[in-house]
From TrEMBL, chain A:
Protein name, entry field: Proteasome assembly chaperone 1
Natural source organism: Nelumbo nucifera
Entry-linked PANTHER family: OS01G0219000 PROTEIN
Automatic annotation (TrEMBL), chain B:
Keyword Transmembrane: no
Quaternary organization: Forms a heterodimer with PSMG1.
Function: Chaperone protein which promotes assembly of the 20S proteasome as part of a heterodimer with PSMG1.
Pfam families in UniProt: PAC2
InterPro entries: Proteasome_assmbl_chaperone_2, Proteasome_assmbl_chp_2_euk, PSMG2_sf
Domain of life from the UniProt record: Eukaryota
GO annotation terms (biological process): proteasome assembly
Keyword Chaperone: yes
Protein name per Swiss-Prot or TrEMBL: Proteasome assembly chaperone 2
Signal peptide segment: none
Similarity field: Belongs to the PSMG2 family.
Lineage: Eukaryota, Viridiplantae, Streptophyta, Embryophyta, Tracheophyta
Organism name: Nelumbo nucifera (Sacred lotus)
Entry keyword set: Chaperone, Proteasome
Gene (name only): LOC104601986
This protein's GO CC annotations: cytosol; nucleus; proteasome complex
Length: 257, 281
């Protein structure tokens, strides 16, 4: 039984520090930055499309079903330790790698595999969208429905996908056959920060959120989404239904380097 | 903080009064703004880009057509027929950045030539020290009109000045110093262990907004009501009605709904989550 006295309050209610003018801010962190394998490239890069994979299924898909890509750089968050990362890129490593599509070099992929705190999302989004070495024309963000912020029913055996778009995208859809995210629910974190940045800078941006958050069915759902999107002409391999896309929060904790 | 005009829109100079929410228990100020924007048919004119507001996005909070108009964390609306601007804030702030945020909002109010700011906030009913029979629907206020926080117009309406406001008390003074940009030694910053009961009210976001707007020479009125966590929709109606009373607005003239009156925002249909699963019964 829930303990209403000691349990963390539901997400729509405030923590004490949210309502305290005298709460001390956390120490300032160094700014995030990009590192590219070819530092003498012609910057800023201006891809016609930047695909940002945030959800575990989309990250898995990027690693295992889109083979025609080249690692060109990475985004560094100085506060994140890389200890425990394998040498070769993996969908389980703690990194934020950037790839160029071999089929279409005007398309870049970004695989966000490290935890971006809400307080950091603004700075990271600013770097990715309009203040770093990448200035995308269009942005497609693949994230998950967040059960804590979703006001509808979410069943573990139900598959859902929704979208939100910037006003600049009107009439030039990046994904087809996907309904609008229902009013009253919200998305937060890096995906939200990226789409907000696109809206403010009048860049075409689409955020797709899918459910469930993990498992083979989630990967298959994201695969079908990409098959009906601006990526439909890319070589996206069939998903064989066998994957280890877990939602293992313990392993993501920094206690387990 | 940067104000970004929505494409094809412009600010209306006649909108000289600004209404905005303070983060508070039950999200009452934010709900009241939702109700006012929806009922007035206020038009979104732009966004405020601030690094201290936590990111969030959603679908249009007001229209039932669900066309996919983005809802962003900090939005500015104008209602020229009511000479009002409104700001809606949908997410909390980065910890410890409330005063900086309030200063930025005050700068925005100055640059957009507002001459009156109305802050809507709730207060924790569990913190009340005095309750009387008539106090359930009582509106409290704080005004920059007089030094003691009173305002004759608010008094005539039967509102009560927040008694816990004491500009000479240490935390109110400290907040005032912060708002005026006076240098504060880090050693003098209050630790959370030092906070006592009297520090509760000046620690609340509405107090930071009040102090920062006042420091800029703006007329500011805080409209306050006590409530507890729960279904806070009735509390939001109370604050929204009080706002209309303060500004002399007639709800029957609102344009959001044919024939006037309150128009419930579409997003409120799922305010407390989905209905229960009927298969349980």
């Amino acid at each position: 039984m829930e303990d209403v006295i000691t349990d963390i309050p539901p997400p729509s209610r405030f923590f004490n520090e949210d309502l305290n003018n005298f709460a001390l801010p956390s120490p300032a962190l160094p700014s995030p930055f990009f590192v590219f394998s070819k530092p003498d490239s012609n910057f800023p890069l201006r891809p016609s499309l930047l695909v940002v994979a945030i959800s575990p299924p989309s990250i898995y898909l990027l690693h295992h079903c889109i083979p025609s890509k080249t690692l060109i750089g990475t985004l560094i968050l100085p506060e994140i330790s890389f200890s425990g990362n394998p040498i070769e890129p993996s969908h389980r490593s703690k990194s934020c790698d950037i790839y160029a599509s071999i089929d279409d070099p005007a398309i870049l992929f970004m695989s966000v595999q490290l935890p971006v705190a809400g307080e950091r999302a603004y700075a990271v989004a600013k770097l990715i969208i309009d203040e770093g070495e990448i200035r995308p024309e269009r942005v497609l963000i693949l994230d998950s429905v967040q059960s804590r912020n979703f006001r509808g029913n979410l069943s573990a055996d139900e598959m859902l996908v929704f979208k939100l778009e910037t006003s600049s995208t009107s009439g030039q859809q990046m994904v087809c056959g996907v309904g609008w995210f229902p009013s009253g629910s919200m998305v937060d974190g890096l995906g939200a920060a990226l789409l907000t940045r696109c809206q403010m800078r009048r860049i075409q941006g689409t955020l797709c959120v899918s459910w469930p958050e993990c498992g083979p069915s989630a990967v298959a759902l994201v695969k079908s989404l990409l098959d009906n999107s601006v990526l439909s002409k890319l070589d996206v391999r069939a998903f064989d239904g066998d994957c280890d896309v877990g939602f293992d929060r313990i392993k993501d904790s920094e206690l387990y380097a | 903080m940067e104000f970004i005009l929505e494409e094809g829109k412009h600010l209306h100079e006649e909108c000289s009064t600004l209404i905005l929410p303070a983060l508070s228990i039950g999200n009452v100020g934010q709900l009241a703004i939702d109700l006012l924007v929806s009922s007035m048919g206020a038009d979104r004119v732009g966004y405020l880009d601030d690094p201290f507001v936590l990111p969030c996005v959603g679908n249009d909070a007001y229209g039932s057509a669900s066309r996919g108009d983005l809802a962003l964390p900090l939005e500015a609306y104008d209602s020229p027929s009511n000479a009002l601007s409104l700001i809606q804030q949908r997410s909390p702030l980065v910890k410890g950045k409330m005063v900086e945020f309030a200063k930025s909002l005050a700068d925005f109010a100055i640059s957009s030539r507002k001459n009156h700011v109305v802050v809507l906030s709730s207060l924790d009913a569990g913190r009340r020290k005095r309750i009387d029979m008539s106090s359930e629907m009582q509106i409290f206020y704080l005004s920059s009109t007089h030094k003691d926080g009173t305002d004759d117009h608010c008094e005539k309406m039967g509102w009560k000045r927040l008694q816990e406001y004491n500009p000479t008390e240490r935390k109110w003074e400290f907040l005032n110093d912060l708002a005026e940009g006076k240098f504060i030694d880090e050693g003098n910053w209050p630790s959370e262990d030092e906070l006592i009961d009297e520090d509760y009210y000046p620690s609340l976001p509405f107090a930071a907004l009040f102090s920062c707007f006042k420091a800029k020479g703006l007329k500011v009125t805080c409209i306050l009501c006590y409530c507890s966590e729960g279904d806070n929709v009735p509390d939001s109606f109370q604050l929204a009605e009080a706002t209309c009373k303060l500004l002399g607005l007639s709800i029957s003239n609102f344009h959001g709904k044919q024939g006037g009156g309150w128009l419930i925002p579409f997003s409120w249909t799922s305010l407390y989550g989905p209905p229960p699963d009927n298969s349980l019964f």
